[in-house]
Amino acid sequence: MCKAKTNKRRRLGPRPVVQLARGVKGTVSREDLGNVIITDPHDAAAVYMSGCYGKGSISKGAPTGLLDRSEHLILSPCEAMYLIDMGALVLIQSDKQVWGKSDLWKHWLSHNIGFCEKFIIYKHFRDKRYTVRSGIKYGGDFMLYTGDPNTTHAAYVVKVVTSEELLWTDVNALRRVSESVAKECVLSYVSFKQYDDRNHPDCVDSSIVSHVLLKRWIPERDREIVSQKSEKSKE
Predict the structure, then answer these.
(1) Does 137 qualify as catalytic in the annotation?
(2) 183 is catalytic
(3) Which residues contact 112 (CB under 8 A, 6 or more apart)?
């Protein structure tokens, strides 16, 4: 029986460590922006259950038709690359050869010029045990959950700032949308210490991640807080 979503806001915190699937095989779609398809129902179920990776090809959320083969599991390039890094996934080409990591990186970069930065941010939050899902419906790149997305609400909407110019009008629109659905907005940036060749996956090891949390400034509220602090200091 499905649990109802709770309306209680939850702060970010580590998720319980879950045993990751190992050696799952998938293929890269040539039509769907390089997304990865896992057709074997047992492999697909193992991947999804190990950390809410991917979505159903029909349900577009938690896959419900895996066992009767009415749908398959779809992984985004960021999800697939993370699982490959973890040794959980192997991607097979049409000629039955295994995709090399460098070739996959270049392939996905050709579909999305911001793939490098987005993967680094995705990996950053996944390594901290957060459940990371697509944030496109709220105008961001990712949404961050502290638990199962099927039973909890996301606490944050993350926008990855790439080399492309980000207008403050867009930032303000994103903040307003996030605020209207009771989520906080985070801008995430990626820089590099030394190796900054975005065309090669080794750049991940040299990356530095930083974040900016956007909050609306309410003068009346802030003035009251300052006034209260001033009165306490006089006491």
Answers:
(1) no
(2) yes
(3) 33, 34, 77, 118
